[in-house]
Specification:
Alpha-Beta Plaits, alpha+beta, single chain, 4-stranded antiparallel beta sheet, 5-stranded antiparallel beta sheet
Length: 360
């Protein structure tokens, strides 16, 4: 629909005459403005496709793949567009730190033996400490409330649980022979044991190369009612809009010319109406000035560009086209197109004279 308004902004008359004769030289200036409001014929939406990979080539290939899939999803969804054009293509390499998984899938079993010893002569503790220290045991403590009883632990690891236990037991037997043979303890035994499974996986920081590609594209469409669907399909692929839509109309020159004519007619009509109550009549325009504020420009509307569908790019790649279309359709993004108002203003100066009939 179009709403048409015509406003007469300014009307004034300048009358100049010479006292040296009866001949009047008169003029009238009128200013008319005509406006029309249009629904848009076209919409332009700008998106940015960003990809990061180990190399620029991989990032560039991935970027191109996403763009082609976007076009494919638009086609499968029945969305029509005039063209998709590149506005900016930017690529660069950087050094970055990344967490790298080390020993993936590897594990070990650790067996701990809790050992008790009985020391009859407390003066032997210093020498016992020396023997244990040589076995990489730096700590032992009193066991319970009984005098002369102490405890410590040893542990060994292996890829298998049984091997871990056997390895720890072998170490115990070697220590038992050595400690008992010293005569410093009267008794040595295993009080308890436990075997645990431990993961050997760990993340380490590693300097890596990073290639990044930013590709800014603009979609021109006449399918105004499906703008929300276009944006949601982009979101499903982690393609981000820049948050605004550019609306425009066709044949702006034709529309502007019609408004110029309407503004002229409005001004002319007002001038004739004023002079209709006088003995003056209009002659040709002496001057027509365009007081419009420039040419008709597109209208920009902004919208929330938050992506509710965000997923890791590798997970998106695994989804079928139908799954992505279904995801995009799960949210009804309503976009109300902006209206475009075009206004033209002309200032006209007419020459006027006394009506011939009255003069005679």
């Amino acid at each position: 629909m179009r709403k048409i308004t015509a406003v007469l902004v300014l009307i004034f008359t300048i009358i100049i005459y010479s006292e040296e004769s009866d001949v009047f030289y008169k003029r009238i200036q009128v200013t008319g403005t005509a406006s029309e409001t249009f629904s848009p014929d076209t919409a332009g939406i700008t998106f940015v496709i960003t990809t990061e990979k180990e190399t620029l080539k991989k990032a560039s290939d991935e970027n191109a793949r996403i763009l082609q899939r976007f076009k494919k999803l638009l086609s499968k969804s029945g969305v029509k567009y005039e063209k998709i054009e590149s506005e900016l293509y930017d690529s660069y390499e950087t050094k970055d730190w990344d967490s790298v998984l080390k020993n993936e899938g590897k594990k070990e079993y650790v067996t701990m033996l809790n050992i008790e010893i009985t020391v009859d002569n407390q003066e032997n503790l210093r020498e016992i400490t020396g023997i244990l220290s040589a076995e990489n045991i730096d700590y032992f403590s009193k066991a319970g409330d009984k005098t002369g009883e102490y405890e410590f632990s040893i542990e060994e690891s292996a890829p298998e649980s049984k091997a871990s236990y056997q390895k720890t037991l072998n170490r115990y037997k070697q220590m038992e022979t050595k400690i008992l043979k010293s005569g410093l303890v009267s008794k040595m035994s295993i009080a308890s044991y436990d075997t645990e499974e431990n993961s050997l996986e760990e993340y380490v920081e590693k300097e890596v190369d990073r290639g990044t590609v930013n590709h800014r594209i603009k979609i021109q469409t006449r399918d105004i009612k499906n703008i929300g669907k276009i944006i949601n399909l982009a979101f499903a692929l982690n393609i981000y809009p820049e948050g605004y839509i550019e609306y425009d109309v066709d044949n702006k020159t034709v529309l502007e010319n019609k408004l110029y004519e309407k503004a002229y007619r409005e001004a002319l009509g007002k001038a004739e109406k004023i002079l209709g109550k006088t003995d003056l009549s209009l002659k040709k325009p002496l001057m027509i000035t365009d007081n419009s504020t420039g040419q008709a420009e597109p209208v920009y509307d902004y919208f929330d560009s938050y992506n509710n569908f965000y997923e890791d790019i590798d997970e998106i790649a695994k989804k079928s086209d139908n799954d992505l279309i279904k995801l995009a359709n799960s949210s009804n993004l309503i976009i109300n197109p902006g209206k475009i108002t075009i206004s033209k203003t002309v200032n006209i100066e007419f020459q006027i004279e006394k009506s011939q009939a009255l003069t005679d």
